[in-house]
Amino acid sequence: MKLLYDFFPILLFFIAYKMYDIYVATAVAIAAAAVQTAGFWIKHRRFEKMHLVTFGLLAVFGGLTIFLHDPLFIKWKPTVINWLFAVVFMGSHWVSDKLLIERMMGHAIQAPRPVWVRLSWAWILFFIGIGLLNLYVAFNFSEETWVNFKLFGMLGITFAFVIGQAFYLGRYMEQENSGEES
């Protein structure tokens, strides 16, 4: 359910694009992100940082797309968000004793520092790569192909990356458990 809630603006963007055009889809995505952010606050009495960042960037880049009637801005938004995440993950290497990935997953997984460092760098490279891939698709393929990639391609690649990460952690945890039983 949380996955659907988090991807709600992207899904509505896709539907609106298929029914109308990039400008209506962009307006729908901005409104959906506003509803998403407000809904989370109403339910939890706090804001989710990811929703705020996404809404803010969507409002800026989407607003420019609508105001200037130029889809270039909305096409840059996924790249900017992913590169911002890469910077935040990278920054956690220097500003804190605990890496961001460890803060996010450390409650569920106990692993030594080198594992967290590898995972962190994997996420950093992933965010940089998916941002570059978004630009490649946005500037080398049709607008419709980019919209399809934005929903299905980016989601599929992210899902595959998370599954790969789970296998990496699962393999590590199995070694940890077998070492403890000996």
Span of the ends, CA to CA: 40 Å
The Rg value, from CA coordinates, equals 18 Å
Beta strand count = 0
Query: What is the number of helices?
Result: 8
Q: In terms of per-residue confidence, which ranges show pLDDT below 50 for 5 or more consecutive residues?
A: 174-182
How much of the sequence is in beta strands? under 5%
Describe the structure.
The protein has 182 residues and is mostly helical. The chain folds into 2 domains: 69 residues; 112 residues, no CATH class. The chain contains 8 helices and no strands. The radius of gyration is 18 Å and the shape is globular.
Keywords:
182 residues; mainly alpha; disordered C terminus
Secondary structure blueprint with pairings:
Blueprint: H1 2-6, H2 8-19, H3 22-44, H4 49-68, H5 72-95, H6 100-105, H7 113-140, H8 143-181
Summary of the model, kept short:
This protein is mainly α. It has 8 helices and no strands. Helix 3 packs antiparallel against helix 4.
